[in-house]
């Protein structure tokens, strides 16, 4: 299975996926930590992928998404964005609605 196939399978298998540095319990950058906090504040169920554990995926995802930085949040297979965008959506109350509309059980 190619790395792009793996990315597509991850996105197809989970309504919400966070590609991040580290894990939700141990984020390894401040931006990933902030996105995790926003998701947790929304009571979101989400899958996470630690990009440090898979360098091939880390490089391929940047090309796949046309987004150069991490974290990257996907809802229903679509890139939402990185930390600044997620935090903006959260502060406006829109992130909770997006998560609820994804079929996420909040």
From TrEMBL:
Sorted alphabetically, which keywords does the UniProt record give? 2Fe-2S, Iron, Iron-sulfur, Metal-binding, Redox-active center
Q: Does the keyword Iron-sulfur apply?
A: yes
Q: Can you give the residue ranges of the Glutaredoxin domain?
A: 16-80
Pfam families registered for this protein in UniProt? Glutaredoxin
Q: Carries keyword Iron-sulfur?
A: yes
Looking up PROSITE patterns in the UniProt record yields: GLUTAREDOXIN_2
Q: Which InterPro entries match?
A: Glutaredoxin, GRX_PICOT-like, Monothiol_GRX, Monothiol_GRX-rel, Thioredoxin-like_sf
Protein family according to the UniProt entry: Belongs to the glutaredoxin family. Monothiol subfamily.
Q: What is this protein called?
A: Glutaredoxin
Q: Which organism is it from?
A: Methylomonas albis
Q: What is the lineage of its organism?
A: Bacteria, Pseudomonadati, Pseudomonadota, Gammaproteobacteria, Methylococcales
């Amino acid at each position: 299975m190619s790395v792009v196939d793996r990315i597509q399978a991850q996105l197809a298998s989970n309504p919400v996926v966070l590609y991040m540095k580290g894990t939700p319990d141990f984020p390894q950058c401040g931006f990933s930590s902030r996105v995790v906090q926003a998701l947790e504040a929304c009571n979101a169920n989400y899958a996470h992928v630690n990009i440090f554990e898979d360098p091939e995926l880390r490089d391929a995802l940047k090309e796949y998404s046309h987004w150069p930085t991490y974290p990257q949040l996907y809802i229903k297979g679509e890139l939402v964005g990185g930390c600044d965008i997620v935090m903006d959506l959260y502060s406006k109350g829109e992130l909770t609605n997006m998560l609820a509309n994804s079929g996420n059980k909040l």
